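Lecture 7, part B: from sequences to assemblies.

Below are the input chains for today's worked example.
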Amino acid sequence: MSITAYVNARLIDPSSKLDEDGRLIVEGTRIGAVEPGQGKEGLSEGAEIIDCGGHVLAPGLVDMRVFTGEPGAEHKETLGSASEAAAAGGVTTIVVMPNTDPLIDDVALVDFLNRRARDTAIVNVRPMATITKALDGQHMTEIGLLSDAGAVGFTDGDRPVSDSLVMRRVLAYASEFGALIVQHAEDRALSAPGVMNEGEYALRLGLSGIPEEAESIMVERDMQLVALTDGRYHLGQISAVRSLEAIARAKSKGLDVTCAVSAHHLVLNEMDVADYRTFARLNPPLRVEDTRLALIDGLTTGLIDVITSSHRPQAPEDKRLPFAEAAEGTVGLETLLPAALQLHHENQVPLMTILRAITTRPAEILGIEAGTLTAGTPADLALIDLGYPFKVVPESLRSRSRNTVFEGRTLQGRVLRTTVSGRTVFEAEKD
Amino acid sequence: MSTETSHGAFAHRHLLKIRDIGPGDVTFLLDLAEEYVLQNRQVDKKSSLLRGRTLINLFYEPSTRTQSSFELAGKRLGADTVNMSVSSSSVKKGETLIDTATTLNAMRPDMLVIRHGASGAPQLLAQKVDCSVINAGDGTNEHPSQALLDALTIRRHLKNFEGLTVAICGDIAHSRVAMSNLYLLSMMGARVRLIAPPTLLPAAADRLGVEIFHNMADGLKGADVVMMLRLQQERMNGTLLPSTREYFRYYGLDHEKLANARPGALVMHPGPMNRGVEIDSRVADDPDVSLIHEQVEMGVAMRMAILDAVSRYRRNDGERAS
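Predicted structure of the full complex, as structure tokens:
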């Protein structure tokens, strides 16, 4: 068995609250030992030695919300290109959304995705299946069979389950299988005319607004349905102050509720729409600064469990349009880590909390073996230069689509090396 | 005023929104338009100022008066004027705005007048073409030439804007006319009031720095100018308002409500009017108070001034390049 020693590393493992200098030994595809305080001494003959240069060695990132274009829109993103982008961003597991063409609402399609991922992706790919067949919002998919086939959760992606009765039944039925229901909370009747956050800025741009209540009303409803059913509920993207309040109440009652926030909602606000930048046309929209600060606070206190990239590739022809006509979404796999690290650099959130939200916590919620530096678990690792500054240049992204809301922004932190099951899948260019 | 090489007070290549220009620019355009009012009242209305220039009217929304106003303005200044409307262009064939823009740009126009249903479309266009872009109304954002012609009309009657109280009434939420007028009149020192039922006011209207009223009697009290807005048919079907007759009862301008305004207050409407919905015919047709026809006349003069002003920038630009 091949042995690789990552020496001279700052080992950070949110799953054990470890933050110490030391070394980590990889044996084959798995972590052999985590040894704080140890240097190069006593390594076995023939071990490959990787000097981490004192940089952070953390579990590889787990990104719970990634849209690709495979199958059906491969010009936007394939599993392969998404995995290249993920590897460059230190992400070793991507959870892909089922909003493809065809939709992932059938066991055969989960099998298809798993095979395609095995053959073309360089990071772990975990599919989610739809909650309702053909996204009709009415008829639930085969939650048991799909779980057995490898679906790590169920979501209608960027569509809400609007019907309260359907949501109640789904939560109740899925609880029998321990299946995770991931909701996109949006009262579409209330949000329908809107294209950005409602408020003064939208008014000044002549754009119609989406109030935060379009999200929080549905979150409030869902919390009551979770209480009624004992379901496992995860809010895919939180972006409203009142949603935070609803989640807080549910958690205090002991309901099995978790939530995620997109990295851009932690770092940007509605002003980043600037002069009709369509890369900032997002769902949910970027909110006001006070909400952004509330989200950061929610992350710090643990109310928000997970940070995702909400990676949403879009082709140029879908973004080079007037704002209201442009497609929603931003790519994010390659900026998830540096965007999240901005909260560390600005002393807003402890580093351990940030890393926990992109490694350990999503792995726990998904119930997968990842997000930890523990002997015996798969050697999925990210070696991180925390302070490295760079400007986000769309053309240099590995993703097949370049619609990044962070375009032109300076971020700090990059991945030096990404390891998946002991194999190096990305190495930064030396400079 | 008319020198061949001077920008005058207007150093802008495009006219995309009122917020891009300052009080000096507004005054310059109003003064220039006054000259064109005189020209338009001659038997021979045509000059050769813009001879050799090409003006393209690109209208993604149907419009009779704005389009013909810009067309006449271009022709009276001697420019070659082409109208492109949605039904006769490739827009219906799925071509994107940017592709249309680059196609038109290749025809080397000097001025592009655009109306589009999406806010920000003229800005997008301006990034992609070499010529001057003039916004003839974009979504619910701005309609700068309308605000300027309204200002011209007001100034001809009331001399200046300082201290005037202007009440803008009706469907504020969906009105680019209201927004451009609000920005322009506030900038020129007038006090602006908005009067509308809550469903026709935009969210965050209270952040605009103007007074808000839901009641005509209160909102019109002491107003010097009353600007009525057109109520779109699709707003009347019960989603935002229960009925047109209820709207007319509470928000339609008749002489009884107008009596709350300053005696002699002037009434304006950007047209086309819904008689008996937002305005009573007896007010609209009352020559003592209604400026509605004068607005249309001022529209052509103001658009001539706009075309003249932006093409000065272009002229100097070209001279430097050659």
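Note for the exam: Confidence is low (pLDDT under 50) at residues 1-7, 316-322 of chain B. Keep this in mind when comparing with the next example.
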